[in-house]
Protein backbone atom coordinates (compact mmCIF):
# COMPACT_ATOMS: atom_id res chain seq x y z
CA UNK A 1 0.00 0.00 0.00
CA UNK A 2 1.53 3.28 -1.13
CA UNK A 3 -1.15 5.57 0.21
CA UNK A 4 0.14 8.58 2.15
CA UNK A 5 -2.30 9.34 4.93
CA UNK A 6 -2.82 13.01 5.65
CA UNK A 7 -5.05 14.11 8.48
CA UNK A 8 -3.74 17.69 8.45
CA UNK A 9 -7.14 18.95 7.31
CA UNK A 10 -8.68 17.87 10.64
CA UNK A 11 -7.50 21.06 12.32
CA UNK A 12 -9.16 23.23 9.71
CA UNK A 13 -12.36 21.27 9.29
CA UNK A 14 -13.12 19.88 12.75
CA UNK A 15 -15.90 22.49 13.38
CA UNK A 16 -17.71 21.01 10.36
CA UNK A 17 -17.40 17.53 11.88
CA UNK A 18 -18.57 18.69 15.30
CA UNK A 19 -21.56 20.43 13.72
CA UNK A 20 -22.29 17.31 11.70
CA UNK A 21 -22.19 15.13 14.81
CA UNK A 22 -24.54 17.55 16.61
CA UNK A 23 -27.05 17.39 13.76
CA UNK A 24 -26.88 13.60 13.53
CA UNK A 25 -27.51 13.40 17.31
CA UNK A 26 -30.39 15.88 17.05
CA UNK A 27 -31.92 13.87 14.21
CA UNK A 28 -31.82 10.57 16.10
CA UNK A 29 -32.98 12.17 19.38
CA UNK A 30 -36.08 13.66 17.78
CA UNK A 31 -36.56 10.77 15.38
CA UNK A 32 -36.09 8.15 18.09
CA UNK A 33 -38.42 9.62 20.72
CA UNK A 34 -41.16 10.76 18.33
CA UNK A 35 -40.78 7.68 16.13
CA UNK A 36 -41.19 5.21 19.00
CA UNK A 37 -44.14 7.24 20.32
CA UNK A 38 -45.78 7.09 16.91
CA UNK A 39 -44.95 3.38 16.78
CA UNK A 40 -46.67 2.73 20.13
CA UNK A 41 -49.84 4.53 18.99
CA UNK A 42 -49.86 2.64 15.68
CA UNK A 43 -49.18 -0.68 17.40
CA UNK A 44 -52.10 -0.05 19.78
CA UNK A 45 -54.39 0.72 16.85
CA UNK A 46 -53.38 -2.39 14.95
CA UNK A 47 -53.59 -4.71 17.97
CA UNK A 48 -56.46 -3.28 20.01
CA UNK A 49 -57.73 -0.12 18.33
CA UNK A 50 -61.03 0.67 16.61
CA UNK A 51 -61.74 -1.42 13.53
CA UNK A 52 -62.16 1.56 11.16
CA UNK A 53 -58.68 2.91 12.00
CA UNK A 54 -56.83 -0.38 11.49
CA UNK A 55 -56.73 -0.33 7.66
CA UNK A 56 -55.51 3.29 7.71
CA UNK A 57 -52.58 2.46 9.98
CA UNK A 58 -51.92 -0.79 8.12
CA UNK A 59 -51.71 1.15 4.84
CA UNK A 60 -49.27 3.65 6.38
CA UNK A 61 -47.05 0.92 7.81
CA UNK A 62 -46.96 -1.07 4.58
CA UNK A 63 -46.35 2.05 2.48
CA UNK A 64 -43.34 3.04 4.56
CA UNK A 65 -41.92 -0.44 5.04
CA UNK A 66 -42.07 -1.18 1.31
CA UNK A 67 -40.49 1.99 -0.08
CA UNK A 68 -36.88 3.22 0.19
CA UNK A 69 -36.07 5.74 2.91
CA UNK A 70 -34.30 7.99 0.40
CA UNK A 71 -37.42 8.19 -1.76
CA UNK A 72 -39.54 9.03 1.31
CA UNK A 73 -37.08 11.80 2.10
CA UNK A 74 -37.13 13.17 -1.47
CA UNK A 75 -40.93 12.97 -1.49
CA UNK A 76 -41.11 15.11 1.64
CA UNK A 77 -38.39 17.56 0.65
CA UNK A 78 -38.84 17.94 -3.10
CA UNK A 79 -42.42 16.72 -3.55
CA UNK A 80 -44.49 18.25 -0.76
CA UNK A 81 -43.64 21.87 -1.72
CA UNK A 82 -45.77 21.27 -4.84
CA UNK A 83 -48.69 20.57 -2.48
CA UNK A 84 -47.93 23.73 -0.52
CA UNK A 85 -45.97 22.22 2.38
CA UNK A 86 -42.50 23.71 2.37
CA UNK A 87 -40.19 22.08 4.94
CA UNK A 88 -36.56 22.99 5.50
CA UNK A 89 -34.01 20.22 5.13
CA UNK A 90 -33.79 19.54 8.88
CA UNK A 91 -37.56 19.52 9.34
CA UNK A 92 -37.90 17.26 6.33
CA UNK A 93 -35.17 14.95 7.64
CA UNK A 94 -36.78 14.82 11.09
CA UNK A 95 -40.20 14.13 9.64
CA UNK A 96 -38.87 11.41 7.35
CA UNK A 97 -37.09 9.69 10.25
CA UNK A 98 -40.14 9.87 12.54
CA UNK A 99 -42.43 8.51 9.84
CA UNK A 100 -39.95 5.77 8.96
CA UNK A 101 -39.16 4.66 12.52
CA UNK A 102 -42.85 4.95 13.43
CA UNK A 103 -43.77 2.34 10.83
CA UNK A 104 -40.97 -0.11 11.64
CA UNK A 105 -41.25 0.23 15.40
CA UNK A 106 -45.04 -0.22 15.30
CA UNK A 107 -44.56 -3.67 13.80
CA UNK A 108 -41.99 -4.60 16.43
CA UNK A 109 -44.15 -3.31 19.29
CA UNK A 110 -47.29 -4.94 17.85
CA UNK A 111 -45.49 -8.27 17.94
CA UNK A 112 -44.79 -7.68 21.64
CA UNK A 113 -48.41 -6.74 22.33
CA UNK A 114 -49.79 -9.74 20.48
CA UNK A 115 -47.50 -12.04 22.45
CA UNK A 116 -49.20 -10.88 25.67
CA UNK A 117 -51.13 -13.81 27.13
CA UNK A 118 -54.92 -13.38 27.15
CA UNK A 119 -54.92 -13.88 30.92
CA UNK A 120 -52.94 -10.72 31.44
CA UNK A 121 -55.75 -8.59 29.95
CA UNK A 122 -58.25 -10.43 32.14
CA UNK A 123 -56.07 -9.91 35.19
CA UNK A 124 -56.08 -6.18 34.51
CA UNK A 125 -59.85 -6.14 34.12
CA UNK A 126 -60.33 -8.10 37.34
CA UNK A 127 -58.29 -5.45 39.18
CA UNK A 128 -60.91 -2.88 38.04
CA UNK A 129 -58.43 -1.18 35.73
CA UNK A 130 -59.85 0.79 32.82
CA UNK A 131 -58.91 -0.44 29.31
CA UNK A 132 -56.32 2.36 29.08
CA UNK A 133 -54.78 1.52 32.47
CA UNK A 134 -54.70 -2.14 31.51
CA UNK A 135 -52.93 -1.26 28.25
CA UNK A 136 -50.52 1.12 29.94
CA UNK A 137 -49.46 -1.06 32.90
CA UNK A 138 -50.32 -4.63 32.08
CA UNK A 139 -49.80 -4.83 28.33
CA UNK A 140 -47.49 -2.10 27.05
CA UNK A 141 -44.66 -2.19 29.57
CA UNK A 142 -44.18 -5.99 29.50
CA UNK A 143 -44.52 -5.87 25.71
CA UNK A 144 -41.85 -3.22 25.39
CA UNK A 145 -39.66 -5.21 27.75
CA UNK A 146 -39.95 -8.25 25.49
CA UNK A 147 -39.07 -6.40 22.30
CA UNK A 148 -36.65 -3.80 23.71
CA UNK A 149 -33.51 -5.33 22.13
CA UNK A 150 -35.19 -5.48 18.70
CA UNK A 151 -36.46 -1.93 19.08
CA UNK A 152 -33.01 -0.70 20.11
CA UNK A 153 -31.53 -2.25 16.99
CA UNK A 154 -34.13 -0.54 14.83
CA UNK A 155 -33.28 2.84 16.39
CA UNK A 156 -29.60 2.28 15.63
CA UNK A 157 -30.46 1.28 12.05
CA UNK A 158 -32.44 4.50 11.60
CA UNK A 159 -29.58 6.52 13.08
CA UNK A 160 -27.15 4.98 10.59
CA UNK A 161 -29.71 5.40 7.82
CA UNK A 162 -29.83 9.11 8.58
CA UNK A 163 -26.63 9.38 6.54
CA UNK A 164 -28.77 9.84 3.42
CA UNK A 165 -30.18 13.17 4.65
CA UNK A 166 -26.99 14.76 3.32
CA UNK A 167 -28.65 14.30 -0.09
CA UNK A 168 -31.05 17.14 0.69
CA UNK A 169 -28.19 19.32 1.99
CA UNK A 170 -28.92 18.65 5.67
CA UNK A 171 -25.48 19.17 7.17
CA UNK A 172 -25.16 15.97 9.17
CA UNK A 173 -22.03 13.92 9.77
CA UNK A 174 -22.10 12.39 6.29
CA UNK A 175 -22.50 15.83 4.74
CA UNK A 176 -19.44 16.97 6.70
CA UNK A 177 -17.44 14.01 5.38
CA UNK A 178 -18.57 14.65 1.80
CA UNK A 179 -17.88 18.35 2.14
CA UNK A 180 -14.37 17.78 3.45
CA UNK A 181 -13.78 15.23 0.72
CA UNK A 182 -14.84 17.76 -1.94
CA UNK A 183 -12.47 20.40 -0.54
CA UNK A 184 -9.41 18.38 0.40
CA UNK A 185 -9.76 15.39 -1.95
CA UNK A 186 -8.83 13.30 1.08
CA UNK A 187 -11.70 10.86 0.61
CA UNK A 188 -10.12 7.93 2.45
CA UNK A 189 -9.26 9.96 5.54
CA UNK A 190 -12.59 11.81 5.60
CA UNK A 191 -14.52 8.55 5.50
CA UNK A 192 -12.22 6.88 8.04
CA UNK A 193 -13.02 9.68 10.47
CA UNK A 194 -16.76 9.60 9.76
CA UNK A 195 -16.83 5.80 10.00
CA UNK A 196 -15.14 5.92 13.39
CA UNK A 197 -17.57 8.58 14.61
CA UNK A 198 -20.61 6.63 13.39
CA UNK A 199 -19.29 3.50 15.09
CA UNK A 200 -18.79 5.40 18.33
CA UNK A 201 -22.23 7.01 18.10
CA UNK A 202 -23.88 3.65 17.46
CA UNK A 203 -22.15 2.03 20.44
CA UNK A 204 -23.08 4.95 22.70
CA UNK A 205 -26.67 4.87 21.44
CA UNK A 206 -26.95 1.14 22.23
CA UNK A 207 -25.56 1.78 25.72
CA UNK A 208 -28.01 4.62 26.24
CA UNK A 209 -30.95 2.50 25.10
CA UNK A 210 -29.85 -0.32 27.38
CA UNK A 211 -29.79 2.12 30.30
CA UNK A 212 -33.24 3.43 29.36
CA UNK A 213 -34.36 -0.19 29.35
CA UNK A 214 -33.03 -0.75 32.87
CA UNK A 215 -34.81 2.40 34.04
CA UNK A 216 -38.18 1.48 32.53
CA UNK A 217 -38.01 -2.24 33.31
CA UNK A 218 -36.46 -2.53 36.80
CA UNK A 219 -37.33 -6.22 36.99
CA UNK A 220 -35.18 -6.87 33.94
CA UNK A 221 -32.22 -5.11 35.52
CA UNK A 222 -32.61 -7.17 38.68
CA UNK A 223 -32.56 -10.42 36.77
CA UNK B 1 19.98 -2.38 -38.69
CA UNK B 2 19.55 0.26 -36.08
CA UNK B 3 20.60 3.03 -38.41
CA UNK B 4 18.20 1.80 -41.06
CA UNK B 5 15.31 1.83 -38.61
CA UNK B 6 16.37 5.28 -37.52
CA UNK B 7 16.41 6.40 -41.13
CA UNK B 8 12.86 5.11 -41.65
CA UNK B 9 11.70 6.85 -38.51
CA UNK B 10 13.30 10.14 -39.48
CA UNK B 11 11.92 9.84 -42.98
CA UNK B 12 8.45 9.16 -41.61
CA UNK B 13 8.60 12.14 -39.31
CA UNK B 14 9.94 14.35 -42.07
CA UNK B 15 7.20 13.23 -44.44
CA UNK B 16 4.53 13.85 -41.82
CA UNK B 17 5.82 17.29 -41.03
CA UNK B 18 6.22 17.95 -44.75
CA UNK B 19 2.63 17.02 -45.53
CA UNK B 20 1.52 18.93 -42.49
CA UNK B 21 3.13 22.11 -43.71
CA UNK B 22 1.79 21.60 -47.21
CA UNK B 23 -1.72 21.26 -45.77
CA UNK B 24 -1.08 24.25 -43.57
CA UNK B 25 0.01 26.39 -46.48
CA UNK B 26 -3.51 27.53 -47.26
CA UNK B 27 -6.22 25.77 -45.30
CA UNK B 28 -8.94 28.05 -46.68
CA UNK B 29 -7.88 27.28 -50.26
CA UNK B 30 -7.88 23.55 -49.47
CA UNK B 31 -11.41 23.76 -48.08
CA UNK B 32 -12.68 25.61 -51.12
CA UNK B 33 -10.91 23.26 -53.52
CA UNK B 34 -12.30 20.23 -51.67
CA UNK B 35 -15.79 21.70 -51.43
CA UNK B 36 -16.27 20.41 -47.89
CA UNK B 37 -15.56 21.87 -44.47
CA UNK B 38 -14.52 19.23 -41.97
CA UNK B 39 -15.63 20.19 -38.45
CA UNK B 40 -14.97 18.42 -35.17
CA UNK B 41 -18.20 18.53 -33.15
CA UNK B 42 -19.15 17.08 -29.76
CA UNK B 43 -21.55 14.17 -29.61
CA UNK B 44 -21.92 13.78 -25.86
CA UNK B 45 -22.34 17.30 -24.57
CA UNK B 46 -25.86 18.63 -24.92
CA UNK B 47 -26.95 21.26 -25.76
CA UNK B 48 -23.73 21.90 -27.73
CA UNK B 49 -23.72 18.54 -29.43
CA UNK B 50 -25.57 15.29 -28.94
CA UNK B 51 -27.04 12.53 -31.04
CA UNK B 52 -30.58 13.30 -32.14
CA UNK B 53 -33.51 10.87 -32.48
CA UNK B 54 -32.50 10.10 -36.09
CA UNK B 55 -28.89 9.37 -34.98
CA UNK B 56 -27.65 12.59 -36.61
CA UNK B 57 -25.71 15.00 -34.41
CA UNK B 58 -27.65 18.06 -33.25
CA UNK B 59 -26.82 21.05 -31.07
CA UNK B 60 -25.44 24.56 -30.84
CA UNK B 61 -22.05 23.53 -32.27
CA UNK B 62 -23.62 21.62 -35.16
CA UNK B 63 -25.77 24.63 -36.09
CA UNK B 64 -22.65 26.76 -35.89
CA UNK B 65 -20.75 24.38 -38.19
CA UNK B 66 -23.61 24.43 -40.69
CA UNK B 67 -23.75 28.22 -40.57
CA UNK B 68 -20.05 28.60 -41.29
CA UNK B 69 -20.06 26.05 -44.11
CA UNK B 70 -23.09 27.72 -45.64
CA UNK B 71 -21.43 31.16 -45.57
CA UNK B 72 -18.27 29.67 -47.09
CA UNK B 73 -20.38 28.09 -49.79
CA UNK B 74 -19.13 24.56 -49.12
CA UNK B 75 -20.67 21.36 -47.77
CA UNK B 76 -20.13 20.43 -44.14
CA UNK B 77 -18.65 17.19 -42.91
CA UNK B 78 -19.27 16.64 -39.19
CA UNK B 79 -16.64 14.63 -37.35
CA UNK B 80 -17.77 13.53 -33.88
CA UNK B 81 -14.99 13.94 -31.31
CA UNK B 82 -14.58 13.69 -27.56
CA UNK B 83 -13.28 16.51 -25.43
CA UNK B 84 -9.94 14.70 -25.11
CA UNK B 85 -9.24 14.21 -28.80
CA UNK B 86 -10.71 17.37 -30.35
CA UNK B 87 -7.39 19.24 -30.45
CA UNK B 88 -5.36 16.25 -31.77
CA UNK B 89 -7.90 15.92 -34.61
CA UNK B 90 -7.04 19.48 -35.59
CA UNK B 91 -3.28 19.03 -35.15
CA UNK B 92 -3.23 15.95 -37.37
CA UNK B 93 -5.27 17.73 -40.04
CA UNK B 94 -8.25 15.39 -39.77
CA UNK B 95 -10.52 18.42 -39.44
CA UNK B 96 -10.36 22.05 -40.54
CA UNK B 97 -12.16 23.53 -37.54
CA UNK B 98 -12.97 22.46 -34.00
CA UNK B 99 -16.41 23.69 -32.99
CA UNK B 100 -16.74 21.70 -29.81
CA UNK B 101 -17.51 24.00 -26.87
CA UNK B 102 -13.79 24.73 -26.74
CA UNK B 103 -12.54 27.13 -24.07
CA UNK B 104 -9.41 29.24 -24.46
CA UNK B 105 -6.40 28.80 -22.19
CA UNK B 106 -2.67 29.53 -22.51
CA UNK B 107 -1.73 25.87 -22.99
CA UNK B 108 -4.11 25.48 -25.90
CA UNK B 109 -3.06 28.82 -27.41
CA UNK B 110 0.45 27.41 -27.80
CA UNK B 111 -0.73 24.71 -30.19
CA UNK B 112 -3.78 26.08 -31.97
CA UNK B 113 -5.38 29.41 -32.84
CA UNK B 114 -8.77 30.60 -31.72
CA UNK B 115 -11.47 32.57 -33.48
CA UNK B 116 -13.54 35.17 -31.67
CA UNK B 117 -16.05 33.76 -29.18
CA UNK B 118 -19.16 32.23 -30.72
CA UNK B 119 -21.01 30.81 -27.69
CA UNK B 120 -21.48 31.84 -24.07
CA UNK B 121 -20.19 29.49 -21.40
CA UNK B 122 -20.18 30.67 -17.82
CA UNK B 123 -21.04 29.93 -14.22
CA UNK B 124 -23.25 32.32 -12.40
CA UNK B 125 -25.97 32.76 -9.84
CA UNK B 126 -29.43 32.29 -11.32
CA UNK B 127 -32.81 33.14 -9.82
CA UNK B 128 -36.32 33.96 -10.99
CA UNK B 129 -36.91 37.51 -12.28
CA UNK B 130 -38.62 38.69 -9.06
CA UNK B 131 -35.60 37.93 -6.84
CA UNK B 132 -33.58 41.13 -6.37
CA UNK B 133 -29.97 40.10 -6.73
CA UNK B 134 -27.24 41.88 -8.62
CA UNK B 135 -23.96 41.10 -6.92
CA UNK B 136 -22.49 38.59 -4.45
CA UNK B 137 -22.99 40.92 -1.44
CA UNK B 138 -26.74 40.85 -2.03
CA UNK B 139 -26.82 37.14 -1.23
CA UNK B 140 -27.00 38.22 2.43
CA UNK B 141 -29.75 36.24 4.15
CA UNK B 142 -30.64 34.39 0.95
CA UNK B 143 -30.46 30.66 0.40
CA UNK B 144 -28.59 29.56 -2.68
CA UNK B 145 -28.24 25.99 -3.90
CA UNK B 146 -25.12 24.60 -5.52
CA UNK B 147 -23.70 21.23 -6.47
CA UNK B 148 -21.13 20.25 -3.85
CA UNK B 149 -17.53 20.33 -5.04
CA UNK B 150 -18.33 21.89 -8.43
CA UNK B 151 -16.29 24.88 -9.62
CA UNK B 152 -19.18 27.21 -8.80
CA UNK B 153 -19.32 25.82 -5.25
CA UNK B 154 -15.66 26.62 -4.64
CA UNK B 155 -15.93 30.09 -6.22
CA UNK B 156 -19.24 30.95 -4.54
CA UNK B 157 -17.89 29.94 -1.15
CA UNK B 158 -15.13 32.53 -1.65
CA UNK B 159 -17.29 35.43 -2.82
CA UNK B 160 -20.54 34.95 -0.88
CA UNK B 161 -21.02 36.94 2.34
CA UNK B 162 -20.84 34.97 5.60
CA UNK B 163 -24.58 35.25 6.26
CA UNK B 164 -25.60 33.84 2.90
CA UNK B 165 -26.97 30.31 3.32
CA UNK B 166 -25.32 27.96 0.85
CA UNK B 167 -27.08 24.61 0.45
CA UNK B 168 -24.82 22.03 -1.14
CA UNK B 169 -26.49 19.18 -3.01
CA UNK B 170 -25.03 15.92 -4.16
CA UNK B 171 -25.45 16.46 -7.90
CA UNK B 172 -27.00 18.80 -10.46
CA UNK B 173 -30.34 17.02 -10.20
CA UNK B 174 -30.54 17.75 -6.47
CA UNK B 175 -29.63 21.38 -7.07
CA UNK B 176 -32.21 21.73 -9.84
CA UNK B 177 -34.92 20.00 -7.78
CA UNK B 178 -34.19 22.23 -4.78
CA UNK B 179 -34.54 25.30 -6.99
CA UNK B 180 -37.71 24.17 -8.72
CA UNK B 181 -39.39 23.09 -5.46
CA UNK B 182 -38.58 26.44 -3.85
CA UNK B 183 -36.18 25.01 -1.24
CA UNK B 184 -33.58 27.58 -2.36
CA UNK B 185 -34.16 31.05 -3.77
CA UNK B 186 -31.26 30.98 -6.19
CA UNK B 187 -28.82 28.49 -7.70
CA UNK B 188 -25.19 28.81 -8.63
CA UNK B 189 -24.60 26.76 -11.73
CA UNK B 190 -23.49 26.82 -15.36
CA UNK B 191 -25.48 28.45 -18.14
CA UNK B 192 -25.79 25.01 -19.75
CA UNK B 193 -27.56 23.63 -16.66
CA UNK B 194 -29.75 26.73 -16.53
CA UNK B 195 -30.58 26.12 -20.20
CA UNK B 196 -31.52 22.53 -19.39
CA UNK B 197 -33.93 23.84 -16.73
CA UNK B 198 -35.38 26.41 -19.14
CA UNK B 199 -35.87 23.73 -21.78
CA UNK B 200 -38.33 21.98 -19.46
CA UNK B 201 -40.38 25.20 -19.32
CA UNK B 202 -40.64 25.25 -15.52
CA UNK B 203 -42.83 27.53 -13.38
CA UNK B 204 -39.64 29.07 -11.96
CA UNK B 205 -37.40 30.42 -14.73
CA UNK B 206 -33.74 30.85 -13.75
CA UNK B 207 -32.28 34.15 -14.99
CA UNK B 208 -28.66 35.13 -14.69
CA UNK B 209 -28.16 37.49 -11.74
CA UNK B 210 -24.39 37.78 -11.74
CA UNK B 211 -21.41 35.97 -13.25
CA UNK B 212 -19.04 33.82 -11.21
CA UNK B 213 -16.68 32.70 -13.94
CA UNK B 214 -16.85 33.42 -17.65
CA UNK B 215 -15.17 31.13 -20.16
CA UNK B 216 -16.87 31.45 -23.56
CA UNK B 217 -16.43 28.96 -26.40
CA UNK B 218 -14.16 29.63 -29.36
CA UNK B 219 -13.65 27.90 -32.69
CA UNK B 220 -10.26 26.21 -32.83
CA UNK B 221 -8.19 26.19 -36.01
CA UNK B 222 -4.63 25.41 -37.04
CA UNK B 223 -1.93 27.93 -36.30
CA UNK B 224 -0.82 30.44 -38.91
CA UNK B 225 -3.88 30.35 -41.12
CA UNK B 226 -4.68 34.05 -41.34
CA UNK B 227 -6.99 33.68 -44.33
CA UNK B 228 -9.12 31.00 -42.64
CA UNK B 229 -9.09 32.83 -39.31
CA UNK B 230 -10.20 36.06 -40.98
CA UNK B 231 -12.94 34.26 -42.88
CA UNK B 232 -14.28 32.49 -39.73
CA UNK B 233 -14.14 35.68 -37.65
CA UNK B 234 -15.93 37.56 -40.42
CA UNK B 235 -18.70 34.96 -40.50
CA UNK B 236 -19.04 35.05 -36.70
CA UNK B 237 -19.30 38.85 -36.51
CA UNK B 238 -21.75 38.90 -39.41
CA UNK B 239 -23.85 36.23 -37.66
CA UNK B 240 -23.79 38.30 -34.46
CA UNK B 241 -24.86 41.40 -36.38
CA UNK B 242 -27.70 39.83 -38.36
CA UNK B 243 -29.16 37.92 -35.41
CA UNK B 244 -28.57 34.42 -36.78
CA UNK B 245 -26.16 33.59 -33.94
CA UNK B 246 -28.66 34.91 -31.42
CA UNK B 247 -31.28 32.60 -32.95
CA UNK B 248 -28.96 29.63 -32.33
CA UNK B 249 -28.46 30.74 -28.71
CA UNK B 250 -32.22 31.08 -28.26
CA UNK B 251 -32.78 27.65 -29.77
CA UNK B 252 -30.25 25.72 -27.66
CA UNK B 253 -29.65 27.81 -24.54
CA UNK B 254 -33.05 29.46 -24.18
CA UNK B 255 -31.55 32.93 -23.72
CA UNK B 256 -30.18 35.79 -25.78
CA UNK B 257 -26.46 36.06 -26.36
CA UNK B 258 -24.75 38.12 -23.64
CA UNK B 259 -23.98 41.64 -24.89
CA UNK B 260 -20.26 41.27 -24.20
CA UNK B 261 -19.73 38.12 -26.25
TrEMBL record, chain A:
The UniProt entry, under InterPro entries, shows: AA_ABC_transptr_permease_3TM (IPR010065), ArtM/GltK/GlnP/TcyL/YhdX-like (IPR043429), MetI-like (IPR000515), MetI-like_sf (IPR035906)
Please indicate if the UniProt record lists RNA-binding as a keyword. Answer: no
Which superkingdom heads the taxonomic lineage of this protein's source? Bacteria
ABC transmembrane type-1 domain boundaries = 21-210
TM helices/strands, residue ranges: 21-49, 69-87, 190-217
Q: Does the keyword Transmembrane apply?
A: yes
This protein is called Polar amino acid transport system permease protein
Automatic annotation (TrEMBL), chain B:
Could you tell me which SUPFAM superfamilies the record lists for this protein? Answer: Periplasmic binding protein-like II
Entry keyword Zinc: no
**Domain Solute-binding protein family 3/N-terminal: from-to ranges:** 36-256
The keyword Signal is assigned to this record = yes
Which coarse location class describes where this protein primarily resides?
periplasm
Which InterPro entries would you find in this protein's record?
A: SBP_3_CS, Solute-binding_3/MltF_N
What name goes with this protein? Polar amino acid transport system substrate-binding protein
Q: Record the organism.
A: Sinorhizobium kostiense
Amino acid sequence: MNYQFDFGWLFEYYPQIVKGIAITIELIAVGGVAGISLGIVCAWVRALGPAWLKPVVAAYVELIRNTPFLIQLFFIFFGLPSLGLQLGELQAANLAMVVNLGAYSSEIIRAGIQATPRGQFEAGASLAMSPFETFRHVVLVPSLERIWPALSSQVVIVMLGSAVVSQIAAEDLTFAANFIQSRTFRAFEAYIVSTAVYLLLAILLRQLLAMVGWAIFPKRAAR
Amino acid sequence: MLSRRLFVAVATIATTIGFGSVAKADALGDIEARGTLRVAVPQDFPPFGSVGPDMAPVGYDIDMANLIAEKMGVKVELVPVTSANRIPYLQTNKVDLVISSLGKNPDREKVIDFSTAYAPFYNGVFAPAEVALGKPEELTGKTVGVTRGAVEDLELTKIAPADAVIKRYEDNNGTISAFLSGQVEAVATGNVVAAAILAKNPPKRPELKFLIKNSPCYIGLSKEQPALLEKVNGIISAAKADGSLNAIAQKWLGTDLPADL
